[in-house]
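re: that chain from earlier
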Amino acid sequence: MACADLQVVEEAAKKSPGNVDLDDEVARAREDLCAALREKEEAEAEQKLSEAQQHHAFFVKEQHEDRQERMTFRRVSFWQHMATYLLYFVMLLNVFITTFGISSGMGHHRDAAAAASSASAVVHTTVSTPAAAAAAVDLQLRHNATAYSR
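^ sequence. v structure.
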């Protein structure tokens, strides 16, 4: 019974004192009211608990996603750095090859055909685009021209 029902039964019991049935009805109404209030409090507590558990689960999920994102970023940045260092190494080798004529093995006394073939060999091993290959061949030919003029 609700609170209004309890008040109606209590008023009826006050108007007719000594009525055992009404006193029993008032006692049952109070017990029902107390039970209903306890159930309401329990339901509210369960709802708060479930909301807290849901919030905690969401927080844990977010932490896991952040951790995964950091690990992925570390892996990707590691390989980016490795690729950059490899590119630097290849560029340094290209500088040594073009500066000192390491690829031909003939020093400064080589003909233009040998220079072109050695430059194309260097280009095929170190350069990946046609424009860069043409620039490397041109650089090797200029190096050879300065070597012949000495």
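The CA atoms of residues 52 and 96 lie 66 Å apart.
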